[in-house]
Amino acid sequence: xxxxxxxxxxxxxxxxxxxxxxxxxxxxxxxxxxxxxxxxxxxxxxxxxxxxxxxxxxxxxxxxxxxxxxxxxxxxxxxxxxxxxxxxxxxxxxxxxxxxxxxxxxxxxxxxxxxxxxx
Length: 119
Hints:
This protein is an alpha+beta fold. The protein contains 3 helices and 5 strands. It has helices at about 45, 55-65, 75-90; strands at about 5-15, 25-35, 70, 95-100, 110-115. A 5-stranded mixed β-sheet has the order 3-1-2-4-5. The two termini are about 15 Å apart.
């Protein structure tokens, strides 16, 4: 049996944009993360936090990581988040990261998303 933890619409303020002036102020992006377990985490049987992933800690580390950087491309940000999560988590997990931003482009009503990962 497989399982997943899904973090939905994590709001993050990052320095992002192709021209330098666009990176002069942080903009909000939304991050969706899927952590796919190939087998049920032990926490399903023990009800202990130590037997699964503490997503609060994961989110805090991710925010600290991205706050220290500038990103020109949405694709680079998505891949950086993916690599950072892979460095923190067990190799037995598959990870998918989706980043969505809402640029000021006429007729674009639902934003732009980039997804990368193992899924």
